[in-house]
Amino acid sequence: MEEILEDKSVEPGPLAPDLRLPKDPLPRGESPRRVLIIGGGFAGLECARRLANDRRFEVTIIDRTNHHLFQPLLYQVATASLAAPDIARSLRQILMKASNVTVLMDEITDLSPEIHSAKGKSGQAYAYDYLFLAAGVQTSFFGRPEWEAYTLGLKSLTEAQGIRRCVLSNLEKAELTECEEERSRLMTVVIAGGGPTGVELSGAFTDLVHRSLRDDFRRIDTSDLRVVLVEGSSRLLGAYSEKQSKYALKRLEALGVEIRTDTLVADVTEQCVHFADGSKLEAAAIIWAAGTEANPLTRQLGVPLADRAGRLTPEADLSLPGFPEVFVGGDLVSLKDSKGSFIPGVAPAAVQMGRHVAAVLKEERRLENTRFKEQKLELRPRFRYFDKGIMAIIGKNAAVVSSGKLRLTGFLAWLAWLFIHILFLVGFRNKLSVLLGWAFAYARNTPDTRIIVQKQE
Fold first, then answer.
1. Active-site residue among 46, 58, 159, 200?
2. pTM of the predicted model as reported, rounded to 2 decimal places
């Protein structure tokens, strides 16, 4: 069976793309299989690209936006280091040469796996033979949805631009006001969550005000901006080694970030964070980076959820129990790797999942015309995750990298972070734009994306 499921001529990936397919592999008289991909993130896009121009499949990829977003760099849009087009690219443009792929901008609101159908917010219904659910996650408020009205999230370009607008506008208001109490509130940023997002945001904000904006204002000192990072556990970056966590703590404190570990948020009201110990902190910008939950669609599939965040535990081949035609990928997956560790919700894992699902569909389609037709489900290979590590940047010239036994901190880790993120950006234009932007900002400490575009009411 290994000869059937493995193409040793192509690397890397849990399953290599099949480059041996004939030019027109669709058997005469047969219709292509309809593949519906929900989500244009790393997993969904990779699956669509792997199925591109394979006439055995008719692929529809649906996303509520019209672009693929490089989420790891969202914080740089939020902190005025990059512009939105630098980290996003039109899905239609990416897939324009894939003749069998249709891109639609819609939001799926209902799933009916029993009848192989999905329904969009537009009212349109989408029938499928195979479904790949890779709709991503959203901000979680741990059962307190009312906090959303008073906080800023970071899961989309709109939210990133909202954070930038809020913080930069608050500095402008602080320049105007004569009231010291109001100025203090306007120049306080609270970030809830000491994971990679919170650490990267807090480091970038202090870099912004200490380096980039220090000579821009006359009535305020931007270095007085108070950045408070709040974490409920005993240390930052819980997924990293204790040594790296301590490094991140010391680095952020050296930058001027106020760190509060072992601090639980009890309530959030308008421009005020209330803590479990009874204290409170007034802040004109409250950023929530404390947790995520799966897209609500996972609750419509009729299968048990893996956790309170709504994630799913699929079969070894990434299909759902009881629904072999439904696959799940990306941040929606709660699955352990061969070492017994949970697969992290990072871009490389999502890409590998998208690649795996596409390869499974191709292999299954081929087996349908062989003597193994009745065994095609049994012959599905299991998903094997290749751990490429995790990393987080901590301001200029500093980062932490954890990959296998490799543990890096400081400038070398920062260089590795920069190289990897450039490598994963989609499209030559994006890579060149980001690289030039970073080089200019590094040399001059003056990012060009500080324009405030007011939100339309």
1. 200
2. 0.88
